[in-house]
Fold:
Amino acid sequence: QAKRASVHVPPNTLHRPSQNGTSHGYSDAMFRMCLGEDSEHLCPPEQVAIEKLISTRWRLLMDGDRVNTKSEDGSNACAAYLEAVDVAADTLRLDKAPRTYRENFTINYRALFPDQARNYRVDVLEAGFEQYATIWVNGDKFEFSAEAMRRAEALQRAWWELGAVLERWSQASRQPQWSQRPARSELRTALVALDFAWASFEHKYIAELIDIEEKARRLIVHAIEHERMAAKIEEEIHQPEGDGGEALMQSPIYAETQKKLVGSIGHLNSVANTRRKGRDDLSREVLFDAMATLRRCDIAEHSGESTERLIAARILATDVVESFQAMRDYLREVEHCLERVDPHLCNNSGLVARLADWEESWEMGTRYMQHEKLLNAVCDLVAEIRRAQRVAPALTAMCEECDVELFLVLPRMIWLRFLAEPQQHAELLRSLLPHRFPKSPEAKAQWDAEVEAFLEKYRATQRLLIGRAKAADKEQEAWEALVQRVVSGDRSIDSAEAEVALEDLMHSLEPWSIELQRHCPEDWNQCSAILVQCLTRASEKPKPGPFRV
Structure:
């Protein structure tokens, strides 16, 4: 994802740093050597340090003319060589290049570069040699400056100059009659030149990285700003007790602020959510519909109405609201520790977890909360399955344990409910099997001929079951027989004709159930997930754990 700058490094060119305050210290070091303050004789500790430096240099792994820093062995060998360079410079009592610029680094980089020590790092060397002119972060392109590229070239030249001096030392050790060891001043010059070139590149490279990281975090900063504005408006607008947020919804300023907040969360989701689709098209209307649904549920509950058929609606709406609130809570927390946010936003596990939950809840809300017929069908279906649990206790155990058999029973229950109430559940079946339930103006019927034939078979079987029923409520007894056969297949019928019809209906039901699951697996998985969620937990979701960036 990055373009490597092409650099030609002359083989025997010594580059002398001259930028950002490094030239003065470099000149001082050279001046002292010119005055003869440094003897050409290497004392024993200095000679040992140089010999070790050469030894570690021979262990460097090379890819052509480049040092291998990508593999673990290559990186370790390079780290050992850089440490030997540092030790040799200290042993020869060389002045360090000024590194006061590190005081302006962010807290993360100050942890990597805590003091004025040389602190030669493999990743800085790798950056100097790779010379990526551009990098991509969160889908955006960032370019390093021409000055950063120039300093990278200078670092490379200094690196190869030191290598050339050490190579001459090695040759002289192997063939003293043909070669002469470099003078002490040459070693010092090469080591000082490398240190100043290194500091010059490190300064520019890290400073530009910090700037890029700050820009990359702007997505989350913008979301924080919108959340802060929304919170301010919420404090200013009076909200009567039990209002459910309706007063806020009437404020145009709040509506616009919330629209921006949702938009910024969507943008974050598109670049950071690697667990799911990364959608950025989920609108604030989902939230409004969810809040309106919760108000309707509260009104029904307070008025004493049965809330059995509102359980699914409450759970779906609660998920939408709570996932949004959890996202806002995250933004409030992370505002105080932005330096801990990885600029590659997808690397922040806490952020990704909140976004994945938000997208899943809002995607379901968009599909079901914003389509009244679909929502009513799901609510009715959940209520019927709960009712069926009282007739077939095995179904309760399947739901509690999320048994694999549950996912064989669910499509049968959906079809059974459609067969009983086709008009009420046609929209739900259409969302899963659109080819069976055409909605075009040219369509003469709501469903195709095969579905109609299946309906006729169900009606005929139901008539037989009602006809042989002995209970006062014959339709209830017929329904119980169907549910028990669908769930466990162990309900026997004392009428031979009804038994044959029921068995035939069950055989016909299986391919329809399989088609429901396989026609569009993604839609089926989402639908079954909603049903399982509504059947296995109360309306409140488990609270998120401790805050994670």
